[in-house]
Amino acid sequence: MDGIVNPYTITALDGVAYGLLLFVIAAGMTLIVGVAGVFSMAHGTLYLAGAYLAWHLADGGWTGLALTLAAAVVVGVLGGAGLAAAVRPLTDRPLDQVLATLGVAYIAGDLFSTVFGAEPRSVDPPRAVAGSVSLGDYQYPVYRLGFIAVGLAVVVGLFWFVERSRVGAVVRAVVADPGMAAATGLRTGMVRAGVVVGGGVLA
């Protein structure tokens, strides 16, 4: 174990944890842009809203964590639904979508700065996962290992959803040929709106 775990291993674990964080955020953005065809520049606003909620609700216990996760899902659903409704009149007008959502991002950023201030905020992990585990001669935070596990679960879950589930097959059909999908009775607008909401939740 001592030969396997070294400073490079710890750095690699940190990289995996941070990379999975970026993956979860980017996966939502990919769904919104690649599947729904919405060129949103306000995706980070949903992440920002969730982060401030986490800072406000976290109390170091499981109750705070549960409230934070529930609030983040609600924000994602409402934000995604709002985004889908806002850009619906701008369908097939990508430049207008970019300009409109960029304006939303600027306005939201200023509002958050006014309400919460511009100072960096940090959220402590729940006390149950605030400790560390021994990896050779090193101590590694439990919450980072937990996040790696959650991130990997999201990777597997998204793959199954897109490639193996019936809903994923519908989404792929809408992406591949929207006209043919609509001709078969699929409500392509609803599918795209649902994808935008799902992408918002992932943020």
Question: Can you give a write-up of this model?
Answer:
It is a multi-pass membrane protein. One of its GO terms (cellular component) is plasma membrane. The mean pLDDT is 81. The longest helix is centred in the N-terminal third of the chain and has 29 residues, at 7-35. It is built from 8 helices and 2 strands. The chain has a two-stranded antiparallel sheet with strand order 1-2. By secondary structure, the chain is mostly helical.
Task: Please render the helix and strand layout as text.
Blueprint: H1 7-35, H2 43-57, H3 62-87, H4 94-116, E1 132-135, E2 138-141, H5 142-163, H6 166-176, H7 178-183, H8 188-202
Antiparallel strand pairs: 1-2
Helix pairs in contact: 1-5, 1-8, 2-3, 2-4, 3-8, 5-6
Identify the notable features of this structure and list them briefly.
mainly alpha, 203 residues, globular, 72% helix
What is the number of beta strands?
2
Q: Report strand order across the widest sheet.
A: 1-2
SSE order? HHHHEEHHHH
The proportion of residues in beta strands is: under 5%
Distance between the termini: 36 Å
| Mean pLDDT over the full residue set | 81
Helix-strand category:
mainly alpha
Shape: globular
For the sheet with most strands, the description reads:
2 strands, antiparallel
Q: What's the helix count? A: 8
As a percent range, the share of helical residues equals over 70%
**What is the rounded Rg?**
20 Å
Low-pLDDT stretches are: none
| Tally of domains | 1
